[in-house]
Write a structure and sequence with these properties.
The chain has 300 residues and is of the alpha+beta class. It folds into three domains: 66 residues, OB fold (Dihydrolipoamide Acetyltransferase, E2P); 68 residues, Beta Barrel (OB fold (Dihydrolipoamide Acetyltransferase, E2P)), CATH 2.40.50.140; 105 residues, OB fold (Dihydrolipoamide Acetyltransferase, E2P), CATH 2.40.50.140. It is built from seven helices and 15 strands. The termini are far apart. About 3% of the residues have low confidence.
Length: 300
C-alpha cells in the first residue's frame, strides 16, 4: 500500500469516528421509552412543562400527562425546581427532546400496588359506576374494574348497586390487558374465614353429598364433613344420614385459608359410637355442650 492511500485511509477513518461522536452528542441514548427518570420542572407553559432530566436538551411533559386527576393549576402537580419522577413515553425527536408522563407513572404504580394486594389476598373498597348484563363496573383508584354477576352478593337487582361502595377481593390483575376482575363473594368468604378457628362449633346447610363425604355451606364457605368424621361407627350410605338442604352443626377440626379448605366433624359430638346415626336430633340439640366437652378433650 503506498503512502498516499495510507493517508487517505486514515482521513476516512478519522472522519467516521468524528461523525460517530457528533451523532452521540445529538442523541442521549441512555433515555429510552418506558424508563423512569428524575428531573426538575424549570418552566411552565399553558400546554405543559419543561423538565431538566440531565440530558443535552430539556424534556417536555404535556398538560394531560401531568397527573391522573384533573389539573386546573399545573404548578400544584408540577412545582418548579422540585425533584420528581417521570416516565419516558416518547423517545427523542429531531431536537433531542423526550416526552414525559406523570399520569402513566402513577397508573403503573397503581397496577403494581393492586398486584401486590392480590398476592397478599387483601380486600379493598370500590364504588359501583355502571351496570351491564354480565355484572357491574367499578372505579378503583382511577382504574375501571369489573365484578361478574356470579361474584356479587346481590345478583338480581344490579341497578340498585349503582353508586354503592362494595368490599371486594381480586380475581385477576393484568396490566398488559388492562383487566381488573374483582369478587364481592370472595371478599366475604375471606372475612368470614378470619372468624373461624379449630375447635369452634359451626352451623351450616348441606349443599352436596359425595361418596367420600358431605359439603356444608357455612356463611359462604364450603366445608367438608368427611365420611369418617360423621360418626365413630362405620357408615355404608350417607343418604341415610343426611339430605341436601339439611341444617347441621359440627366442630371445625382443620383450616387452610390459602386453599380455602375447612374440615368439620360431627363424630367428636358423639357420646358413643353410632349415636349420630341413632339419634341425630338429640346430638344437634345438645351440640354446644358436646362441643365444649370435645374442645376440653382436644386441649388435654
Amino acid at each position: 500500500m503506498n503512502s498516499e492511500s495510507k493517508v487517505s485511509q486514515k482521513a476516512n477513518s478519522s472522519f467516521t469516528m468524528d461523525d460517530f461522536a457528533k451523532a452521540l452528542e445529538k442523541h442521549d441514548y441512555q433515555f429510552q421509552k418506558g424508563q423512569v427518570v428524575s428531573g426538575k420542572v424549570f418552566q411552565l407553559d399553558p400546554d405543559g412543562a419543561y423538565v431538566d432530566i440531565g440530558g443535552k436538551s430539556s424534556a417536555f411533559i404535556p398538560r394531560d400527562e401531568a397527573s391522573l386527576r384533573t389539573v386546573t393549576d399545573l404548578s400544584e402537580v408540577l412545582p418548579l425546581n422540585e425533584v420528581l419522577e417521570f416516565l419516558i413515553v416518547r423517545e427523542q425527536d429531531a431536537e433531542g427532546q423526550v416526552t414525559l408522563s406523570r399520569r402513566q407513572l402513577e397508573l403503573q404504580q397503581i397496577w403494581d400496588k393492586l398486584a401486590q394486594m392480590q398476592e397478599n389476598s387483601q380486600t379493598v373498597q370500590v364504588r359501583v359506576t355502571g351496570v351491564n348484563k354480565g355484572g357491574v363496573t367499578v372505579d378503583l383508584q382511577s382504574l375501571r374494574g369489573f365484578i361478574p354477576r356470579s361474584h356479587l352478593a346481590e345478583r338480581d337487582h344490579l341497578e340498585a348497586l349503582k353508586g354503592q361502595s362494595l368490599t371486594v377481593a381480586f380475581l385477576e390483575v393484568n396490566r398488559q390487558n388492562k383487566k381488573l376482575i374483582l369478587s364481592q363473594r370472595l371478599a366475604a368468604r375471606s372475612s368470614n374465614f378470619n372468624l373461624l378457628e379449630i375447635g369452634q362449633l359451626v352451623a351450616g346447610k348441606v349443599t352436596a353429598i359425595k361418596p367420600f363425604g358431605v359439603f356444608v355451606d357455612i356463611d359462604g364457605i364450603s366445608a367438608l364433613l368427611h365420611i369418617k368424621q360423621i360418626s365413630q361407627k362405620f357408615i355404608d350410605s350417607l343418604e341415610k344420614v343426611v339430605q341436601v338442604g339439611q341444617e347441621i352443626k359440627a366442630v371445625i377440626i382443620d383450616l387452610d385459608e390459602g386453599k380455602g379448605r375447612v374440615a368439620i366433624s360431627t363424630r367428636v359430638l358423639e357420646n358413643f359410637p353410632g349415636e349420630i346415626l341413632e339419634n341425630f336430633e338429640e346430638v344437634m340439640t345438645s351440640a354446644e355442650a358436646r362441643a365444649h366437652r370435645a374442645a376440653n378433650k382436644m386441649s388435654e
